[in-house]
Amino acid sequence: MKFSRKSLLWITLFFIIANSIIFLKRNKGFEYIKYAATSALYPPGPDSSFFKKWNRYNQRFSKKELGEGLLLLQQHTGIDTLSSDEAKVISIGAWLHHSFQSQVGKPADSLSVLTPLLQYQFLAADKKKQLWCGQFQAMFGFFCTAAGLNNRYVEIVPINPLQNGGYHEINEVWLPGRKNWVMADATRNFLLITKDNQILSAAGYLDHRMQEQPNSFFITFFNNSSNRIDTFLSKKDSGDAYFNKNYALRYYLNMDLGKVYTPVERIKRYIFADPWYEMYSPGAQRSNLLFRMKQVFLLGLLVCLVLLLVFAIRSRHQKAG
Predict the structure, then answer these.
(1) To the nearest 5 percent, what fractions of the chain are helix, strand and coil?
(2) Where are the domains of the chain?
(3) Which of 54, 90, 137, 273 could form a disulfide with 169 if both were Cys (CB 3.0 to 4.6 A apart)?
């Protein structure tokens, strides 16, 4: 019995040390990543549960906020006069880009805690205030929601952050008439991208950019010189700083960072496979083996602690007897 208890103490110490090392290196491959195929991200016949999954964040907007957003759209884009959802997406992106493209820069930290509607009002009231892609993304998603368009939030991330820096935020909007997701990048003035008369999603654009054979695309943008929406044909040999083999796409299930980073949510993600985004990475996918190993070491520690408790209870009963 004494030998077993001593051995258990040594094993427990091993698991404590192992778990401590893993915790210190928790962001070095030990986090769970859910990779998704295009068939899961872009099913041919999405149902209501699919849209509910991706609209989780947009459901937090109140009716009052959405009403104010729709009123702004009516005033600045004439959205009620637009017959197609495609035209609405282009109009919203063009309006936001034209309104704030001269203010692109590093925003104050206080801007990020504001709702998208308040961000718009704050930036429109003071043209000296700056914003970057995260604010463009948040406002675009809000105004699309106000217009009744299903949309979701996508981030372009480097596969190897140490070699390729730079993150970028974009949006995707569902076009029921075309039964297709369309990518919109209001920051870079990419309002709509088509190839061979097909509107491209974020994953579709990334796939084409990763092909060895150079591609050309028709890109719809807001022409600041003529003050109108225009289209140009990209050069075949032109690249894209974000859409290439060195980058992947994160599709966010939740953008409420105040909730995502609460201690409870952090602990849940540390122990369980409970992601707050899904990843599309055709260039390279990392194994979740280290995450599973972490779970095994946590379980081993838990078992050891339970056994030590059992030993302690038995020892107390033996002394009492």
Answers:
(1) 50, 15, 35
(2) 1-32+288-321, 34-287
(3) 137
Mean pLDDT lowest among 85-89, 94-98, 307-311: 307-311
Strand segments, DSSP code E, in the chain are 34-35, 151-158, 168-175, 180-184, 192-195, 198-199, 218-223, 228-233, 247-252, 277-280
Q: Are 189 and 168 in contact (CB under 8 A)?
A: no
Is the Cβ–Cβ distance between 200 and 193 less than 8 Å? yes
pTM over 0.85: yes
Closest of 32, 28, 21, 19 to residue 272, by C-alpha: 32
Tally Cβ neighbours within 10 Å of residue 221: 20
Give the pLDDT band (50/70/90) at residue 237. Answer: low
User: Would you place residue 212 in the very low, low, confident or very high pLDDT band (cuts 50, 70, 90)?
Assistant: low
Token pair, residue 133, equals: 């892609």
pLDDT band at 1 (very low <50, low <70, confident <90, very high): very low
| Rounded Cα distance, 251 and 183, in Å | 12
DSSP-derived secondary structure letter, 12:
H
CB burial of 155-190 (b: ≥16 within 10 Å; e: otherwise) equals: bbbbeeeeeeeeebbbbbbbbeeeebbbbbbbbbbb
What average pLDDT does the chain have? Answer: 92
Query: How many distinct helices (H) and strands (E) make up the chain?
Result: 12, 10
C-beta separation of 309 from 316 below 8 A: no
CA-wise closest residue to 207 among 161, 164, 250, 247? 247
The confidence score (pLDDT) of residue 182 equals 98
CA distance 3 to 197: 75
Burial of 117: CB neighbours in 10 Å, binned 0-12, 13-18, 19+ = buried
Torsion sign (Cα): 7, 9, 11, 14: negative
Q: Give the C-alpha separation, 256 to 116, whole Å.
A: 12
The SS3 of residue 56 is coil
